Amino acid sequence: MITIKTFVFNPFQENTYLLYDETGEAVIIDPGCYAKSEEEQLSAFVEANKLTLKHLLNTHSHIDHILGNHFVSEHYSLPVQSHKEDEFLITRAKEQAVLFGMQIDEPPMPGNYLNENDTIKFGNSELKIAHAPGHSPGSLIFYSENERFMIVGDVLFNQSIGRTDLPGGNLDTLLKSIFTKLFPLGDDMKVYSGHGATTTIGQERISNPFF
To answer: What per-residue confidence (pLDDT) applies to 102?
Structure first.
């Protein structure tokens, strides 16, 4: 059974997810740790729970979701895994950081590209992948059909949806992704978003003002 640990990191209050099962193998999704104290918080949890990180995954490559990629990739010797269509965002990350008054190490480029219908395996567990563009061209969701949850980045929020006014964003594309990729997975699916509280597909279907 997968345990999901949530960290809220960086000035953007981004949700970083650490998933692990009874074997101690784990994946990290969207490491947003920026401050040294946040890096220490993450590594201390991994050490205390005797976890072995197997995958470094990004739902998308906006700066708030990749701030910890350099640290995690170096510290745990893991390649970044994300969708190729978001690669242009990584090349702009240092420039973006300056606009927010931040200084960051050069974020690593992906060592492995992820695509629709790929599967991520760790321990006795697996996550399936769907490509859900609209917030960014390469937005991905990671989901478990058996354990009924999905990690969606900024595709869908509790009572909202992701911004579409950033480079590569498109409202019609985002809504199509939600209706065709997320909703069919079932109303009981728990939704872990890139910011804010968890929700469910059923709750958003009936109460989200965008639908």
So the answer is: 87
Tell me what pLDDT residue 98 has.
83
Residue with tokens 């969708």: 83
pLDDT, one tens digit per residue, over 65-78 is: 999 999 999 999 99
Give, in degrees to the nearest 5, the angle at Cα 197 between 8 and 205. Answer: 145
Q: Which of 211, 118, 19 is nearest to 182 (CA)?
A: 211
Q: What is the mean pLDDT of residues 110-135?
A: 97
Q: Which domains does the chain have, with CATH numbers?
A: 3-207 (3.60.15.10)
Angle at CA of residue 133, ends 129 and 135, nearest 5°: 120
Q: What CA–CA distances, in Å, run from 139 to 2, 49, 69, 84?
A: 23, 30, 16, 10
Average pLDDT over residues 124-147: 98
* Alpha helices by DSSP H, 92-157: 93-99
Question: Full-prediction pTM beyond 0.85?
Answer: yes
Buried/exposed code over 177-196 (b: 16+ C-beta within 10 A; e: otherwise): bbeebbbebeeebbbbbbbe
- Using alpha carbons only, how large is the chain's radius of gyration in Å? 16
Q: How far apart are CA 20 and CA 38, in angstroms?
A: 19
- Residue 163 in tokens: 């911004």
Would you say 128 and 134 are in contact if contact means Cβ atoms under 8 Å apart? no
pLDDT computed for residue 103 by the predictor: 83
Measured distance CA(188)–CA(63) in Å, rounded: 31
78-88: per-residue pLDDT in tens? Answer: 999 999 999 99
